[in-house]
Write a structure and sequence with these properties.
Layout: H1 21-24, H2 38-52, E1 59-63, H3 70-82, H4 88-97, H5 99-102, E2 112-117, H6 123-134, H7 142-150, E3 151-152, E4 157-158, E5 161-162, H8 163-180, E6 186-191, H9 193-202, H10 208-219, E7 227-233, H11 237-243, H12 250-257, E8 260-263, H13 270-279, H14 283-286, H15 289-304, H16 314-317, H17 328-341, H18 345-353, H19 360-365, H20 377-386, H21 395-410, H22 417-436, H23 442-448, H24 456-468, E9 472-475, E10 480-483, H25 488-497, H26 503-515, E11 519-521, H27 523-529, E12 534-540, H28 542-548, E13 557-565, H29 569-581, E14 587-594, H30 596-618, H31 622-647, E15 659-661, E16 664-665, H32 674-685, H33 704-720, H34 733-743, E17 748-751, E18 754-757, H35 766-779, E19 785-786, H36 787-795, H37 803-816, E20 821-825, E21 828-829, H38 835-843, E22 848-852, H39 860-872, H40 883-895, H41 899-903, H42 909-919, H43 924-936, H44 947-977, H45 983-997, H46 1004-1013, H47 1020-1032, H48 1043-1065, H49 1072-1075, E23 1078-1084, E24 1090-1096, H50 1099-1115, H51 1120-1136, H52 1139-1153
Parallel strand pairs: 1-7, 1-8, 2-6, 6-7, 12-13, 13-14
Antiparallel strand pairs: 3-4, 4-5, 9-10, 11-12, 14-15, 15-16, 17-18, 19-22, 20-21, 20-22, 23-24
Helix pairs in contact: 6-8, 8-10, 9-11, 13-18, 17-18, 20-22, 21-22, 21-31, 23-24, 26-30, 27-32, 30-31, 33-34, 36-37, 39-44, 40-43, 42-43, 42-44, 44-48, 46-47, 48-52
Length: 1154
Amino acid sequence: MSDLLIDHLELDSKFLRSIALSRDLRSAESLDSYLITSAVLTVLRQIGGALNSGSAQRAWKILGPYGSGKSALGLLLARLLEGKDSSLAIYQQLKEVSSEVADLFLPGQNRFALSITGSRSSFGDALAQSVLEALEYLPKGRGATELKRQLDLKGQTYRDKPLNAAIGILLGDFVALTKAGGHCGVLLLIDELGKFIEHAALNPELGDLMSLQQIAEAASHPTDDGLLVFAMLHQHFDAYAKGVGRTLSDEWHKVSARFDDVPFDEPVERYAHFAAHALGAKPIITDSKPIQNQAREFYRLSTKYNFFRKTAESQLFSQAELLYPLHPAALASLAVISKRFGQSERSFHAFMRGHEVGALRDFANRTKTSFESWYRLPELYDYLSVGIGLRFRDLEAERRWDFARSVIDRGAAELTELQIELLKAIAVIELIAQSLHVIASPEVLRFALLKDKGELQVIISALTDLECKAILVSRQATGDYVFAVSQAINIEALYRETQKHTDDELMFKGIAQSLSGKSVIASRHYQQTGTLRSVRVIAGTPEEVKKSVGDYRQHDGCIGLMFVDASMPEQIAAARGIASGIKDVAALTAIVQVGANERSALIEYSRWVLVNDQVKSRFLDPWTERHVETQLGAAREQVARLVLALLNHQVQGSSSFTYWHRGKAVQGSESMNLSQAASWLFDSVYKSAPVIHNELINKEKPSSAITLARQRLFELLEKKGGEELLGITDYPPERLLYVSLLQSTKLHRKRGEHWELVAPDKESPAGIQKVWQALDDLLLTDQQVTFAQVTDRLARPPLGVRNGPASIWCVTYLLMNKETCAIFERGSLVLELTPEHLQRMFRSPQTFAFRRFDIASERKALIQDYIAALGGVGIQVGLDASYLDAARELIRWYSRLPQYSQESMRLASHTKALRDVIKRATDPVALLALDIPRVLTGVKGREGDGFVAMLTESLTELGTAFRCLQDEVSLSMAQAFSITGTLKALRAQLQEECADAAGALVEADLKAFIMRCADITLTDDKWLDSIASVVVQRPLDIWTDAQAPLFADKVHDLCGRYKRWLRVAMPRGEFERQAQRFVSVTLTLPSGEEAAMLLASDKETKQVADGLLKELTKQVSGDLKMAASALAQALLQLQQGSNAVDGKELTNEQRTAG
């Protein structure tokens, strides 16, 4: 019989083929060689338990490293849930391993499996394509044909809607189709979801977020279990985005939270099972006593050196000969390296059964069977350095590996065989040290190289020689050796400097640094209320916690963890005294007793933090920084593993601790982890919090898209408030806001034939009832309350409503109570709430204030007085009007008055006083009940007049002030042109006289004035405004009191210039129509000069002339010559008064007429 190992091992290759869901989902043989492990059972137990408990959570994301078997696990779930005959074999295997878990997946469920494999493409497109392909496995029928017809892959639509917006509808139709075909529902498997996330991060505008949210919501329907979803990823959502240089918005993190986390990763110890299964050692090996003894001793010692855990796989290790010829150090190292740097089980199984140089098959082909023949770390190093390549994600680890390879390659001729083996073993240990916490001490290296105890000193000498040659460096703190990469000596010196600090000082520094800035999400509270709240974790000494416990920063509360030494009762007693004295309502405290292991981990972490600070301050090379960051990360992981496990009550033998709230111990809190404690805190503080399942709006600062959707929502309420869903047919963001905040709360419901806003009643959810009660209590007061104060009040306990929903509910409250709610912007009453007001209100909440008035307490008699007085000036107010209605109409009427009326002082004193109180009004009740009666009651000289009469008179005078000004302007025009009669007669006469003359004028101002006078295209009001603008360069409605006399003077001057122009132009016979109304008189002065006068002639002047002539004839006793002489003397005296003014103008007029 051959002595070669290869002849005594099976090493078949049927496990080399990996699972691809797109290929193997319908294959009956794809799970023939599947091995159900404890990690698989843990996942099945979690998922099966949720399904059997009737939980509404039916969407999971399975997280595990590359190649950890997630795809095969998904295929296993599909087999167990489809319950076909082809699944009986795997079900029987599960029943043999764990009948308890098998009972959670009873045969005959008949759930249809649908798979999608991730790619850099739109998720909606991939799902649609998968649905079309799956239709081939369902019965043909009208439903399938209709679905195909409605699904347009080229146009990327379903039912004429974009795919990403219609994913929920598409899946719902597909589930209904499978149920019609005899299935109980659909299992959706999303493999490599991370690729879709990468595509979404690069193309956020395509709406993949909405697709995943719809899927998660469909799978979490409280009554419909037709859809289950399993998504497979190897890291969290944001890590994929970072990998392509992007970040994900908060909405993505909330979508991620809709999927329950299912961690899946095989521990290192389970790889021993895989190895035993793959090796298939024959009896010549398993029955060999030397091999049995040697193998069992090696695997017993492996737990001492941290290659395996003591409690894991004890049964297998009692038959360790099944693992021959794998040395435990090599087996554990290979498991870790394949997970961190390769393809996990795929690379592991490739090593076990493949034909690569240096792999197990190659080793077995050239090695004889013997208890001394083992595959050790040096052999593993040879395989890793020449065989498959390692995929480093850590640049520091890659640098150290390359350094080790170069040293070993260069030193092959100069170093001893033992030293080469030592370097190879140390190189491999450095790859796994972070994961297994293995150190390359002389004792560990002796074990890894199969050396006797007597050779330990030889190993130490060899290591010392390597240190002298600057190949290795020893670390005094841990007693191990590492490669002397350029920065290692400096780092070691810095590390030694940290020993100057005491252990207590380092421990508390480690606590503060490891937990500083840590926030904890109240997960259960979030699931129940829909509001994401977090606590700030404050950790340190009891005194430090006491100082900082009230500082929540950006969080909703805090948890103060007071760390004390478990061996010092006096510290524990002092901490209890501090805990009982903290009364903050949103704070919890706890006394954490630290044991020896946790203390050691915190001290080590604190040392590396100090080293890291020194490295960054000294600006060393980036490789050095990466090395220190790696060590710091390892120490941080150790702290997380020990300290956080302690906080989550996962450390066996550790003393439990109780949370304290407002100075009292919380009953039953001994078993709470941090998240559960945070949920208890917020459940207690926010007892009346309404349920809001909408992460897009349920936040302090909604995104710009949601802000815009909020604006559109109120516009729809205004325009289509009487329609179901406000007339929304698609799925825009405003529909999500409407459904979650108005429809689900029954604030918008059907009354009769129409939908309308309705205040909460007994049928409404309790949360919204309490919100409305808080708004009533806040606004039904004697003081104005700002919008900022309203949202702040709703945010405080016991409601805890975020700004997003609070702003929508507050505006909805105002719309419901617009008849009784007054809105003020910067102190001024808002007559009508417009979209522009809403934009400003959301942008500057402190500038808007509200007040609601109690109609029952208003003085009805006084309101009736106002209704009567306002009706007298044309202001219509309903008979059942309130103070607010009357004030709004009064202020609206006042705001429409011209500026002249609002500022003129040519009013009665009581009218001016009324105008002032209206102008300064900020409170409708105070305006009508106090201010107006005060200024109109007991007016001096009007004591007998009633309030209604005085108010009517004042309003009438104020309302007609501008009309009086127009009449005054009209009168000034009539007097200047010497025309009597109405405004209509004045305009007709001016048009007749001035239309022809305007074109002959040269002076610009006079010509403009005459042209405006002759304009018949304007209404009377606009004609007066036009005349006013050209005369005093100011529209009539914004005149001040000084403009009226100024206008009269300027019009008189312009008319005088026009008449003098006519006097010169008329003798030429060009203006016969104008001459019919004027008489021209020429006088010869004593100096011999001639002077002319142009006088208006009309019926009134003719009557005066007739009377004057009759009287004059009497005085001169009929002497006509004397009468003519007297008239001439009178005209001469009248004319001499204007000679000085006329001299210059006469010259101009002569030039114009000539």
